Amino acid sequence: MRIDAHDIAVNAGGRPLLAGVTLSLRPGAFTGLIGPNGAGKSTLLRVLAGLSAPAAGTVTYDGAPLSRLGRRRLARAVAYLPQDGPVHWPLTAEAVVMLGRLPHRGLMGGVTDADRTAVERALTITDARHLRHRIVGTLSGGERMRVLLARALATEPALLLADEPVSALDPRHQLAAMALLRASARGGTGVVAVLHDLTLAARFCDRLILLADGRVRADGPPAAVLTDPLLAGAYGIAVHRGTVDGAPYLLPWATLPPLAEKETVR
Amino acid sequence: MIPRIPYPALVAGLAALAAVLCLASVAVGYAPFDLTAAVDDWLAGRATLPALVLAELRVPRAVLGLLVGFSLGLTGAAMQGWLRNPLAEPGIVGVSSAAALGSVAAFYSGLSATIGLALPLGGMAGAASAALLLTVMAARGAGTTTLIIGGIAVNSLAGALTALALNLAPNPYAALEIMFWLMGSLTDRGGDQVMLVLAPMLAGWILILSGARALDALTLGEEAARSLGFSLTGLRGRLIAGAALAVGSAVSVTGAVGFVGLVAPHLMRPLVGARPGRLLVVSGLAGAVLILAADIAVRLLPTRPELKLGVVTALVGAPFLIALTIRLQREEP
């Protein structure tokens, strides 16, 4: 499944949330969607997932628009993990992960072997097998995140679109979750994740898309996107940089005055 | 932890219990009544008094209890899953009270005196107009909260118009008749009423049951449900139409029998691992069991005049609702 977005515009209350966004997504890569608050990251992810229609522009899935593909077929190919996704009833973790198989199941009919295999694999990848009989509401933030991620992976999608999957996790679980997302990208499922932590984005992602004010400011390998001028222009910050065993890290170090930010953009 | 009963066994068990209560309901009554003789006469086609009581009163009463209970329990489970709110009830979207208003209008206008089926037809018309109003709101993209507020508005309007009918009732007896009917009862319902409500109820059940998978998906919220391939506008349409058909016809023959739609899903939820899709049929069967048991109880209690079914369910259901609200507050401070 390839997603092509062309010249996307989204408005809300007369204010543009996205304008002229063009990008392509393919399986097999871990893409980070970064940018300041209000840049339009979540909006873009929802448009790519087919959950909200853009005011202008087109989104196609392997060349076909959603109207031709159908929501059900899209649901088998593209999984969407909302930010802070709720679980409304006291379901067990296993039952929640099984919900990821709904796009593959008919109106009637029971659970097939393929469903069970996919659920087992998803629980194994996310290291959540021991949680299967727990009620999701009783899990810690990290455990809950892994179960919800397993739900999305159980669909066996070509692409996984995840909105801030690691923001609410402690550092250890952040590292584990990023490694997990990278592993599933290596395994063939393309992952697009909205991220706030620039070091995690730099270390784990194959590609970064930097959004600011509803526009794509940069799109490419992390080293080409996380440059001082681009970060100053998009976030209005100066960063401190370094490397550990060849892997880069960068720490937001100082805010820049708004004037300097504008000059950098010019 | 509650020991898990396999789902097919749970469904079979509840169905068997409902069937037993149906038989018990046929056997229970005030008049001395030889059930075996009545069945013999009925099967042989002899129009004796026991056979007539059996075919015209006892069997329709038991069957209606089953149908109405299933409709209320099923719709309650569907509403709770749809609104993701354990306090939801068929009444919440205004369908029950609008159905009651429609039947009261048939009473008040005197149509029910001249045309036997005016009462149920009025109830269905009331339910349908409430459902239509909700569908119009849904089509304009109203969210769940808007629909609940719309339901409260419909409830208030129907309540006000019902009170108006009582206020303007030509004589105290007419007002009393309306009041008694509003309390809800299965007494003296006939076979023709069963036939009238059977088709709309079945249609409503099918519409609601077709939403089982979408209700499961809604556990993860509206965004995730749509991303799993479900159309929420489609689900909303099916549930509103299904609730109007099932609950509208139920209220129109029995009057307002409250709280079954609230209590049945609650009792059953732990037994199906809280899965909204599986809760539907199980909750419907539990609703049938509750109504049949309550209807047997009103006939066995020595109170005279007989307690109305709706009074019994409200007396049991309202404290249940209060306890539930307190428990939910404690769980979600």
Overview of the structural elements:
The complex is a heterodimer of chains A (266) and B (333). With 266 residues, chain A is α/β, with parallel strands linked by helices. Chain A has eleven helices and twelve strands. A six-stranded mixed sheet of chain A has the order 6-7-8-3-9-10, sandwiched between helices. Chain A has a four-stranded antiparallel sheet with strand order 2-1-4-5. In chain A, strands 11-12 form a two-stranded antiparallel ribbon. In chain A, helix 4 packs parallel to helix 6. Chain A is globular and about 60 Å long. Chain B is built from 15 helices and no strands. In chain B, helix 10 packs across helix 14. Chain B starts with 6 loop residues before the first helix and ends with a helix. The model of chain B has no long low-confidence stretch (mean pLDDT 85).
- The low-confidence parts of chain B are none
Give me the side-by-side strand order of the main sheet of chain A.
6-7-8-3-9-10
CATH H-level homologous superfamily name of the largest domain in chain A: P-loop containing nucleotide triphosphate hydrolases
What name is given to the CATH topology of chain B? ABC transporter involved in vitamin B12 uptake, BtuC
Structural class by helix and strand composition of chain B: mainly alpha
Task: Supply database-style keywords.
heterodimer, A: 266 residues, alpha/beta, Rossmann fold, 2 domains, 6-stranded mixed β-sheet, 4-stranded antiparallel β-sheet, 12 strands, disordered C terminus, B: 333 residues, mainly alpha, ABC transporter involved in vitamin B12 uptake, BtuC, globular
Question: Short description, anyone?
Answer:
With 266 residues, chain A is of the alpha/beta class.
